[in-house]
Amino acid sequence: MPRQVDSAERLAAVGDAVVSIAVAAGFGAVTIRAVAERLGSSTSAITYVVGGRDEVLRTAVRREIEARRAQAEAAIGGASGAAGLRGLIEWAVLTPGERTHRLWLALVLGARTEAVLRAELDEFNRWWDERVRNLLAATGIRDIATARDVLDVTVDGLVLTGFDEGSPWSAARRRRVLDAMWSALEL
Amino acid sequence: MPRQVDSAERLAAVGDAVVSIAVAAGFGAVTIRAVAERLGSSTSAITYVVGGRDEVLRTAVRREIEARRAQAEAAIGGASGAAGLRGLIEWAVLTPGERTHRLWLALVLGARTEAVLRAELDEFNRWWDERVRNLLAATGIRDIATARDVLDVTVDGLVLTGFDEGSPWSAARRRRVLDAMWSALEL
Fold first, then answer.
1. Tens digits of per-residue pLDDT, B119-130?
2. Cα B186 from Cα B181, distance rounded (Å)
3. pTM (predicted TM-score)
4. Domain-by-domain residue ranges, chain B?
5. Fold adopted by B7-184
6. Residues of chain A with pLDDT under 50
7. Does the beta-carbon distance from A177 to B125 stay under 8 Å?
8. Which of A91, A122, A162, A182 is 20 to 30 A removed from B56 (C-alpha atoms)?
9. Rounded to 5, what percent of chain B is helix, strand, coil?
10. Which residues from A are below 8 Å from B when comparing CB atoms?
């Protein structure tokens, strides 16, 4: 795949366009044509810089996920055990805006039918699972598997509940649920 | 709106078609044309029996939600307090198949942009909230608002987590998360 001198900038622009379309209408609406229209570019310019539709999706999603992963690591900040875990989980449910949560839902739904999205989501989930498992192991908690499931359900639930009710919950309201969860896990 | 002798049957067929399309591709893909194609019918036959697109969506979603609500009431079975609550929550996360959970996600996402879906979802949520609040009140629990939020997050989380990982969790795995939640709420 050919690359230009300013290819990083072009890839970023394509990535932003993909994310905007997916947030508004789901990944099914992300076509080379839709991306080109959004950028005021030609479809051939997109495929020249990035490749076909799968490559466009992969590039955009990977870029986005890597940015989130860096934020998550910063939130953990090298802490281990309960402190690191709390940093990670609070980051996941309190920090990202509605746009990120919408993108996440679009990704989870899109992964049902698009192998390229499934692969990127699986890769992220492997990282997340290992990170959570290691942090839980350092807390000395007995049932790591159940604790991990409870945390995953809490994170996914806090993402979905906002949409369910039409607008995201306040940070204070999310925090109360998290606090109940920490007590439940005795962390 | 005109009704035929066999209108209940026709409405049911339209409702099933709407649900199938929404489960597969979201409510954005539900058009009169798509419903007609699925039923091997004409678009004018659909609009004659049900009405325009909003009316088609409303009829299908209301029928589906009413069926779920009847199942939920049966699961509560007239029990009050913790027993009734457990019946309701276990029904929500253990009983419906993947199709119902997919429809629920499609409805939550569709409600962002379609007023008719928002109205039906809000109506269901009002019923759910009141039911959960009353059952919680009968348990004597102190902080009803937080308990209700924890239960809502758990239900939404268990719905979403299955899609997140590519396949729904086993009933045993969901039940372990629910058990942790009951302990947390001391129910």
1. 999 999 999 999
2. 8
3. 0.89
4. 7-184
5. Tetracycline Repressor; domain 2 (1.10.357)
6. 1-3, 5
7. no
8. A162
9. 80, 0, 20
10. 25-26, 28, 105, 108-109, 111-112, 118, 121-122, 125, 146, 149-150, 152-161, 163-166, 169, 173, 176-177, 180-181, 183-185
